[in-house]
Design brief:
14% strand, Kynureninase, 4-stranded antiparallel beta sheet, Aspartate Aminotransferase, domain 1, binds pyridoxal-5'-phosphate, alpha/beta, kynureninase activity, hydrolase, EC 3.7.1.3, 35% helix, Aspartate Aminotransferase, domain 2
C-alpha cells in the first residue's frame, strides 16, 4: 500500500461523517458528480411511493390540507434555511433556479428604485443566469454590463440597480467573497442577488449573518433532491414587504382561494410563490433533506476542504507533471467543493474515467470537473480517483 492509500484509510476511520454514506443508495463507483446531480438518499423511494399511492391515490384532493401539500413550499424552505444560515420564514421552494433568478433580479431592480438603470452580471456566470439577466434588463429598461466579480467594486455607481453573482464558479470551483461583495454592493445602494447552486450544502453561506438581500439556488446538486427538484428563493425578512414579484401568480395572493380579480400579495416568504407547486418533486426533496438531520454544515466544510486538499495532493503525486493544470484556487477561502483540472483531451479522458468507475464530468472546452460531496465521498474514493486518473493520463 502506498503512503497515500494508507493515509486515506486512516482518514476515513477518523471521519465523523463517514456513517452518513449508508444514508445513500450507492455502489462501488466513485461518484464525484454530486455537484451536478446528488446521489439518491435511501429514504426517498419509500416516501415517493407513499406520496403517490396513499396521499394521491387514496386521499386525493384531501392531501392539499391533510398531507401538507399546500404549505410544502414554505415548510421545506424552512428545512433548507439552517443549511444556508437563514432564520425561518425567508425561503420558499418552487420553480427552477432560472425562474427564481428572474424573479429575484427583476424584484431587485424594482427595490433599487428610480434613477438606477444598470444591472451588473458576473461575466463568468453559469450561462442561464446571464441569459435571464439580459432579458430582465430589457424588460426593466436597464442596461446590462458583464464584469468579473473582482471588477464589481469598481463598476458600481449611482446607476447600479442590481448585481447578479455566483457564490461558487461552476467551472473552476472558485469561491467568491459573499460577505465582502454583499457589503460593497449594499454600500453603493444597489441590491445583490446571489446564486448559491454550487455552495448550498457544501459550505456555510451565512445569508442572515452577512446581510444578503436576495438569493436563489437549486436543490439537486449538494442537496440531493433528485433530477429537476424545485429550486428555492430567499428574500431577507426586512425586504419582504418591498418584494414585488414579476410573476405574481395566485399562489402568492393574500387570499388564493378568494379567486379575486385584483392581485394583492401575501406577506412573508410565500410572496415568492407563483403557481401550483410540483408536489411529487417537492416531497421527494423533503425526504432527501432528512439526511441533514444532525449534520453541521461546518463539519461538512471541514471535510470538503480535506477531501479537495487530499485530491490535489494525490494528483500532484500520481499524475505526470504538466499533464493537467488545476484551475481551482489553492487558498481555502477561495475554494468551493470541487476540483477542476484542465487538460487538452479532457472530453476523452472523462469518458475513460467513467468507464472505469470514476464519475466526474467534462465542461467544454477542456475542463475535468470533480465534485466532492462530504456526506458520501470518502478519502479512499479520492485516492482511487486520482490513481485511475493518473493511469488514464499516462
Ligand atoms: C446548476 C446551476 C443552475 C441551474 O439552473 P436550472 O434552472 O436548475 O436549470 C443555475 N445557476 C447555477 C450557478 C448553476 O450552477
Amino acid at each position: 500500500m502506498s503512503g497515500l492509500s494508507a493515509r486515506a484509510v486512516t482518514s476515513d476511520a477518523d471521519d465523523p461523517l463517514a456513517g452518513k454514506r449508508s444514508a445513500f443508495v450507492l455502489d462501488d463507483v466513485v461518484y464525484l458528480d454530486g455537484n451536478s446531480l446528488g446521489a439518491l438518499p435511501a429514504g426517498v423511494p419509500g416516501r415517493v411511493e407513499d406520496v403517490v399511492r396513499r396521499q394521491w391515490g387514496e386521499l386525493r384532493i384531501r392531501s392539499w390540507e391533510e398531507s401538507g401539500w399546500w404549505t410544502a413550499p414554505e415548510r421545506i424552505g424552512d428545512r433548507i434555511a439552517p443549511l444556508v444560515g437563514a432564520a425561518p420564514g425567508q425561503i420558499v421552494v418552487g420553480d427552477s433556479t432560472s425562474v427564481n433568478v428572474f424573479k429575484a433580479l427583476v424584484a431587485a431592480v424594482r427595490i433599487a428604485g428610480d434613477g438606477r438603470d444598470e444591472i451588473l452580471v458576473d461575466a463568468t456566470t453559469f450561462p442561464t443566469d446571464g441569459y435571464i439577466a439580459e432579458s430582465a434588463a430589457r424588460m426593466t429598461g436597464c442596461s446590462l454590463r458583464a464584469v468579473t466579480p473582482a471588477e464589481v467594486p469598481g463598476a458600481l455607481s449611482g446607476r447600479t440597480a442590481a448585481v447578479l453573482l455566483n457564490h461558487v464558479d461552476y467551472r473552476t470551483g472558485r469561491l467568491y467573497d459573499l460577505p465582502g461583495l454583499t457589503a460593497t454592493v449594499r454600500a453603493a445602494g444597489a441590491v445583490a442577488v446571489w446564486d448559491l447552486c454550487h455552495s448550498a450544502g457544501a459550505l456555510p453561506v451565512g445569508l442572515d449573518e452577512h446581510g444578503v438581500d436576495l438569493a436563489v439556488g437549486c436543490t439537486y446538486k449538494y442537496l440531493n433532491g433528485g433530477p429537476g427538484s424545485p429550486a428555492y428563493l430567499y428574500v431577507r425578512a426586512g425586504l419582504q414587504d418591498r418584494f414585488d414579484s414579476p410573476l405574481p401568480g395566485w399562489n402568492s395572493h393574500v387570499e388564493p382561494f378568494g379567486m379575486r380579480g385584483a392581485y394583492e400579495p401575501a406577506s412573508g416568504a410565500l410572496r415568492g410563490r407563483v403557481g401550483t407547486p410540483d408536489i411529487l418533486s417537492m416531497l421527494a426533496l423533503e425526504a432527501a433533506l432528512e439526511v441533514w438531520d444532525g449534520v453541521s454544515i461546518e463539519a461538512v466544510r471541514e471535510k470538503s476542504l480535506a477531501l479537495t486538499d487530499f485530491f490535489l495532493e494525490c494528483v500532484a503525486e500520481y499524475v505526470p507533471r504538466g499533464r493537467v493544470e488545476s484551475v481551482t484556487p489553492v487558498a481555502h477561502e477561495e475554494r468551493g467543493s470541487q476540483v477542476a483540472l484542465r487538460c487538452p483531451d479532457a472530453g476523452d479522458v472523462m469518458k475513460r474515467l467513467i468507464e472505469r468507475g470514476v464519475v466526474g464530468d467534462f465542461r467544454a472546452p477542456d475542463v475535468l470537473r470533480f465534485g466532492f460531496t462530504p456526506l458520501y465521498v470518502g478519502f479512499v474514493d479520492v485516492e482511487r480517483a486520482a490513481r485511475v486518473l493518473a493511469e488514464e493520463l499516462r
